[in-house]
């Protein structure tokens, strides 16, 4: 395997790392600091934990099993009509930053992920 073929998924630690990250993300969100963002989600975060782990696996270049099991998935369409404000977007990004640290994702990769998620989350903002 050449350096070029090593995916971010493998670089951050594969399935175990992505699982840690998804679990940490919703554990963080489920604390009082993130009440507004938490209120947008279902009471049971179990299915969303699975979905985020599956999505991130594919997004980072890992296996696409979860996307296939959904019959395809468009992260932008999924968030359209949610009425995402700058406030809830900022909470999402802050929760992800905290989760990356808690899940012990190596800083260069955590930084790259935050940089990549910035425009994605901005594109999800509510349009007037
Ligand atoms: C910009 C701020 C964001 C907000 C406020 C937000 C909010 C939400 C909400 C309310 C749900 C539905 C959860 C439920 O039904 O319980 C959801 C699901 C999800 N979000 Fe976000 N989200 C944001 C950004 C992102 C980003 C940047 C990504 C990934 C790049 C992402 C990935 C997902 C995934 C994979 C799901 C699960 C989809 C499913 O179950 O079908 N979200 N999000």
Task: Summarize it.
With 128 residues, the chain is mostly helical. It is 66% helix and 0% strand. The chain has one domain (9-123): Globins (Globin-like), CATH 1.10.490.
Whole-angstrom Rg: 15 Å
Low-confidence stretches: none
What compounds are bound to the protein?
Answer: protoporphyrin IX containing FE
Domain module tally: 1
Helix content: 55-70%
Q: Architecture in CATH?
A: Orthogonal Bundle
Looking at the structure, the CATH topology is: Globin-like
What is the N-to-C order of secondary-structure elements (H for helix, E for strand)?
HHHHHHHH
Report the mean per-residue pLDDT as an integer.
96
Structural class: mainly alpha
**Shape call:** globular
Percent in strands:
under 5%
Counting DSSP H or I runs of 4 or more residues, the number of helices is 8
Determine and state the CATH class.
Mainly Alpha
Q: Tell how many strands the DSSP assignment holds.
A: 0
User: Kindly, what is the distance between the CA atoms of the first and last residues, rounded to a whole number of angstroms?
Assistant: 48 Å
CATH superfamily: Globins
> Could you describe the largest sheet, including whether it forms a barrel?
none
């Amino acid at each position: 395997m050449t350096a070029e073929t090593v995916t971010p998924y493998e670089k951050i630690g594969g399935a175990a790392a992505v699982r840690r990250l998804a679990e940490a993300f919703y554990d963080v969100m489920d604390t009082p600091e993130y009440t507004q963002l938490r209120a947008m989600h279902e009471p049971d975060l179990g299915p969303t934990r699975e979905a985020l782990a599956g999505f991130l696996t594919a997004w980072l270049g890992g296996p696409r099993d979860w996307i296939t099991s959904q019959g395809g998935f468009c992260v932008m369409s999924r968030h359209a009509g949610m009425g995402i404000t700058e406030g809830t977007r900022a909470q999402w990004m802050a929760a992800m930053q905290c989760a990356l640290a808690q899940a012990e994702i190596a800083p260069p990769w955590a930084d790259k992920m935050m940089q990549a998620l910035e425009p994605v989350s901005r594109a999800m903002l509510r349009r007037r």
